[in-house]
Amino acid sequence: MRGNWYAVVALCAASGAAVAALSPPVEEAFVGGSNGWATGAFAPAAWSSSGGPSGSEAFISSTGSFENKEAGGILDPTALLTVFRGETGPGSMEASGGAFVGNWLGAGVDEFSFWIRHDAPVSLEFWTRFAVPERFPGVVFGDGTLVNPGEWTQITYSISHLSPDLVAEEVPGSFFAAFGDLGQIQIGALTNAGVAGDPATYTFDLALVVMTPAPGGLAALGFAGLLAGRRRR
């Protein structure tokens, strides 16, 4: 099955017409506003002009509750709380002017990262779903990073069908379908025993969303100064 998807991706890259063209690296720094990024409930995300990972960066915010969520793993839909959406396609706002949309495989994208913060009372894991513009099929990534309350933390995924960060494909070949014509990025929190069923509303903050091609890496984009934040693996 994966061999067939390799052929599809190669054909799309060669034609240059089947999917949108990318020009990586791409950085969404939320300069001037939320730039089409939405909350988990599809509303425009709130925007702050400063206060990001090193104090000066802009960021966006969303709120959410774990009241109707159960503790579980990334493969359990009842444990997944979507807090941000960077989407384009049917029924979606165009996030980042469509800069993240298209054939990541053909563009050689091998890394995706973002900075996240929350004010829930316990440490949380976060996950990201990547999907085609029509929302299905998709894949879910998660690296097990624990984000402590009130701390900006960077999450970084290796984008590969062999990546240890790839948790689940919704159907066989989802990785090649999603990254051959990416249209949806959803970032969410994983419910654990400390917040399951909690009716309180918590705030989630997102900054500096970046995708890079090989050799990639934030150092190539000059983000060394962001080490004032914390990165865990």
- Looking at the overall shape, the CATH architecture is Sandwich
What is the makeup of the main sheet? 7 strands, mixed
Distance between the termini: 32 Å
- N-to-C SSE series? HEEEEEHEEEEEEHEEE
Note the beta-strand portion.
25-35%
The tally of structural domains comes to 1
Rg for CA atoms: 17 Å
The CATH homologous superfamily corresponds to Galactose-binding domain-like
Helix % is 10-25%
Could you tell me the number of beta strands? 14
Q: What best-fitting shape do the alpha-carbon axes yield?
A: globular
CATH level-1 class:
Mainly Beta
Number of helices: 3
Secondary structure category: mainly beta
CATH fold assignment? Jelly Rolls
Poorly predicted tracts of residues = 1-19, 216-233
pLDDT averaged residue by residue? 85
